[in-house]
């Protein structure tokens, strides 16, 4: 009876926490900038207070044990959100972009959060996926769905080709190499007429399934919704799949190897980890995620240009991972959603937008340098059934 009561209480708590998170995101999405900042501040305060009274760890454990219930709440929230914002296409656009950036951030987290490799060129892989799918559709009439597959292949191949020589460097030198790659990619787009040059690629077709165009309004229970609802559901379906893949990788031997490399490469290599292979895997998988997001963006917006994939975009994507919490799947998604919303709300300030964006980020990182939901120690189950938390750094002898 006690076990059943405990399980019931945990289920209620998991549902309540999930609903609270969804409500905070909804209010931040539909409200003005001051209210959005207030919601972000409220979330920060709740996390900080929870850590000080040590209740946040209990919430983590409950959410882990009752993740099925939490997933159902989030799924219901995603399904009904378009019904509440059906009359506002701009809000739907923000939500779609938040989902697209979440996919990129999850891929970037493999490098930045798990393996400790600072990559300043995620927008280049994002752009590679977008341009690949767009060119195939516009110039050769290839289906956007097939174009997405080629976008994944091209972005992954680019990640492998670029990553192999780049990984011969470390630390700040690796960062400089990725910056150079990002600049080269942007200049190549601008100076190559075959890919549109500075004029970009217009007229990119949308997705279709069984003859139904995603650019047609969607009708649900006699309620007519904007065409963006189709893309909203598609994007967040892929966000869910990306989150599942990222979580499985984190809990696999590959994720453990990435963490070992992040803590101490020398110790990791002495434990039999192939540094080159594991690092290249992080680059290629991260690039594949960006390729998916690029294809989604190209066929949603119907126009792409070099300004969509420049260095400033890479900086914003990096901030999403850092703010959300490196090597934490849920944290990365929350960081991507919150920063996307905040970035869009700041457009009213025109020339001062990036200045205010930077000030807000600095304040948040000063208050919460480890991110909204920071990396947690891995949890294993010993042979006698007892749970034991093991710090990878301590196990590997890192300093």
UniProtKB/TrEMBL annotation:
Domain of life where this protein originates: Bacteria
Gene: livH_4
Annotated TM spans: 12-29, 35-50, 70-85, 91-110, 117-138, 144-164, 171-190, 231-250, 280-303, 315-342, 354-373
Protein name: High-affinity branched-chain amino acid transport system permease protein LivH
Keywords per UniProt: Cell membrane, Membrane, Transmembrane, Transmembrane helix
Species of provenance: Neomoorella humiferrea
Recorded GO MF terms: branched-chain amino acid transmembrane transporter activity
Topology in membrane: Multi-pass membrane protein
InterPro entries on file: ABC_transp_permease, LivM-like
CDD domains cross-referenced by the UniProt entry: TM_PBP1_LivM_like
Subcellular compartments: Cell membrane
Keyword Transmembrane carried by entry: yes
GO cellular component terms attached to this protein's record: plasma membrane
